[in-house]
Amino acid sequence: MGRGFVLLVAMLLAIAGCAAPTEPDAAGVSEETVVFGLSSEPDTLNPVLGYSPDGGSLIFDGLLRRTPDLKLHPALAESVPDAVGTEITFTLRQGVTFHDGRPLTAEDVAYTYNQVLAPENNSPIRGDYAAIEKVEASDERTVVFHLKHPYAPVLQRATLGVIPAGSDLAALGNAPVGTGPYTFTSWTKGDKIALTANEKYWNGAPAIRSLVLAYTSDDNARATRMAAGEFTATELPPKAAARFKDQEGVTVHETPSADYRGIMFPMKHPVTGDRAIRKALDLAVDREAMVSAILAGAGSPAFGPVVPGTDWHNPAVTGSARPDTEAAGRLLDEAGWKAGPDGIRVKDGTAARFTLMYPAGDSLRKELALAFASDAKRIGIDIQLAGLEWEAIDPRMDTDALIMGFGTPYDPDHTNYELFHSAYAGQGYFNPGHYDNPEVDRLLETGRETADQAAREKAYHEFQQVISDDAPWVYLVYLKHVYVVRGSWTGLETGIEAHEHATAGLLGTVPGWKPAP
Amino acid sequence: MEARAVTWLRIIGWRLVFSVPLLLAVTFGMFVLAKASPFDPVRQYLGDRAMVTSPEIMAEIRANWGVDRPLLEQYTTWLGNLLQGELGESRSLRLPVTQVIGERLGWTLLVVGCALVVMLAIGLVLGTLAAWRRDSWLDRALTGGAFATEAAPVFWVGLLAIWVFAVSLGWLPAGGLTDAAATEVTFTGLLRHLTLPVLVLAVSQSSWLLLYVRESVIGVLREDFVLGARARGLRERTVLVRHALRSALLPFITIMGARVPELVTGVILVEAVFALPGVAGTTIKAALAVDFPLLAALTLLATIAVVLGNLLADLAYTLADPRVRVLGVS
Q1: ipTM, 2 dp
Q2: What is the DSSP string of B144-182?
Q3: Quick one: which of A223, A228, A297, A290 has its CA closest to A261?
Q4: Do B94 and A170 count as a contact with CB atoms less than 8 A apart?
Q5: pTM here?
Q6: What mean pLDDT do residues A5-29 have?
Q7: Which of A161, A356, A438, B137 is deepest in the core (most CB within 10 A)?
Q8: DSSP-based three-state secondary structure for B12
Q9: pLDDT reading at A113 higher than 90
Q10: Is A95 exposed, middle or buried (0-12, 13-18, 19+ CB in 10 A)?
């Protein structure tokens, strides 16, 4: 053998030798380059095709923008118009240009919205804009939204990023051109997106010059890369974030969100159709244990579909996080559900038994469903669990209970109208339990069509009370989003976040970040 | 020389004739399986938004895509578009299929190419060594290791490698093409990021090669001409490399071709585990998203790779063994 073999071994070693790091990782955190470790990579960067329509895009601006306190402010529009009637007129800010230098005109805004509404584009967000008939540019700087019916929450839909008129939708999704605080530099698919500060931004150039959005879907991998110093900030599930809590130079932020998990009951089912059963379950749930054991503290008990902390929330709709099995038992006794020989309550020969479905791939919902079933057992209600794929859940939603999650903090009309209005009964995931209450229908319609803020608040406060009394759902928990941020920054703000929060929540305030002195 | 060219043309011609029904069968089979899949492509396309999208809009998207059409109609439409060079648009990535493949194919070829070279080196060197030192501790360790890696699934070896080299030792990055903060792909960055995936793929694919080379060389070492070479006092290295290994390699070329499918599935798993933006890892995404257009194109590509691999092996065989020409292929 001799020399030849030695040579080959040397070659193999050389290949493996690349293993030894030749230089220290160039991932140092500086003011110049900030790296966000995010969990899910967008499929497209085109707002029309569904990229961050609620204002989380750093590349695009909407007519309006939302601050973390959930207030709307003018962005590409000069001012926030009144949402009265079926015609809403926006006047554009002067002197705004796209990243490629083209001036922004009303034509661009009209193009953006009309492309979302065009059925042939298959935009996944089209349903959100259902109230809009069409959008018209009446002159260079004026754009008019024509609505199908008076729709007070329409302004919340004005945060959609505006794209240049005539853009090819697929190409723009790959190499976006917007007006936002950051310009697009590159996108390595499956890895990261690099952005550069827009020096000509109408609201002032961001202090952080270079921003990298790195995508790692695995939570533990993201925590490891954060710990290794690769990321400036990242989003993590509560348990993975725990190790950063006492670390120096690193801050863990827990922000409240409107994202809730709850049990949807089918009204046609002989057991769950009985209000006494639903109210008793509501009393028997140990929400405190769910928050501390399942969510590792990063959550809060939920009692209704509107998140506390906003003007829309009715403070009277609340409860105890601890279970009250005695009161629940009394309620069931009064309603005629008497304990049978096997401990399961029976009424007129019907056992208090129903099936609760959960999506098999969602471990959080699975754990919540298990906890809910064991709480129910204590008051003599037998819940049989079924972990299924969504395709198998669909056809059973009008006969079996289901653990679901929704929640946006922007306007109580969103999702609640579809979930509780009788007109949507049995339409896919909208009101799958066939809840039908004329009082709720009326309140939801009032809230949607009235422009007066006080009148809207009153309608939604009453709506929450009725839902709480009727209990078509049992609300379990609101989730908190957990972020880990390295270094200290001014301009980092937190607020109540929506379910979608990649760069919409806390990390979305990055254009305003400055290193703390 | 001329005779060889004729043989090659005949081989290529026959392969082309056979590959047409094969490609049709494979792609049709893919459509049948995709249609039978319980997953709804529209729901996968909408993601979380499926929960807040009305059934009418979902039905409209389904109609726009034609997925509500009968299976045969969908397939013939796809085939017609294919013949016009139109591969359609990927639904999950919202981009033309040709662009998706174009952006990613290069990375996959790079990984496969590097892995092939490393795999040949490992397999040939260690296989010959094991045969030469047959039944020694070295042989036992090598064959034992080879059996172990042959039995272990590629993705498992990949995860193990990440755990050892990236997480515990911190020598190499766990995935991706570049460091998080780097804005462009550099040569050294690429080298560091591709070392683990290439080695994992090479090691997991080289075990059968190692075992094969060992068997072959052991067989040849018993032959009279090897005995003769040794008797003539040739150096051991010359006997081993020039005589034994060379004749042991002949059937190996065909086996190489037959192992291409395994390499294809191997690279799919390696790219998924190491989060590489290659075309193979995309196959998994396309399958999960029930992205018919992308999945069909990728299936086609994989089938062509296998057919091509076998063809190249057969052509190489005619070079290595003149007898093939006499036997012909018809």
Answers
A1: 0.76
A2: HHHHHHHHS-HHHHHHHHIIIIIIIS--S-SSSSS-TT-
A3: A290
A4: yes
A5: 0.79
A6: 40
A7: A161
A8: helix
A9: yes
A10: exposed
